[in-house]
Amino acid sequence: MTFSKIQDLNFDIDDYINPWLPPSQIHRLPPALSRFLGYRETKPKEVGNVFVWWWSFFGAFCGIAAVAAIFKYSGIFTYSQPPPIIIASFGASAILEYGVISSPLGQPRNCVFGHLVAAVCGICVTKLFKYSSNFEELKWLSGALSVGLASSVMAFTNTSHPPGGATALLASIDPNVEALGWILLPYVLVGTTTMLFIALIVNNIQRTFPTYWWTPREMGSKLFGPKRPPSIVLHVRPDRPLEDDLCEAGEMKTGLG
Question: How far apart are CA 180 and CA 87, in angstroms?
Fold first, then answer.
């Protein structure tokens, strides 16, 4: 295989998993519930940027405060040392989830799985480096490799979320986060889902969030078959030849193309 052909290689994991995933059924839920899950029957009017500033502030404040309060006071995490009050990378996620809410990088799939994927990458790389007796001297290399690996895996899984790079880095070089090891994963899961829950409430008061839950592309083609154009019902009139009706139907079908 020549280098020019290698440059043209493309792989999209969604081409293989989306056909087997059921499409969203949020539109079937009661309106009061589906609204706060991002569904709208008609495209809503966009609010002015002054309101965007306000909701960005309010949402980020509520989201970070909720996560920090859970980590500090809930007692759901028991560990030999005090847990971190917050994972610093959540601050960057707050900007995407409450400020730039239409960005593909800030949709639920990216926000939750991006952090999880990055955390796994950071933990795995760090544990490998800890086999070395000079781990403290190699932390800089461990951190760089963690971020590089997380970036690649997030791109592979279509879960790219820039704050996830910080999660991978913290898992490698921050002593408090690195000491958590695999316990970092439930921290990340609780934190990201809490911030998402707050985003669904705050962002759907005057705006619309999320733009999509998994992907904007078609889903479920292997489960339900591809979408088909609407069928044509042929009404035969007794006062005209059948051939005229068939010709008219053919013209209608051609126009649907």
Answer: 12
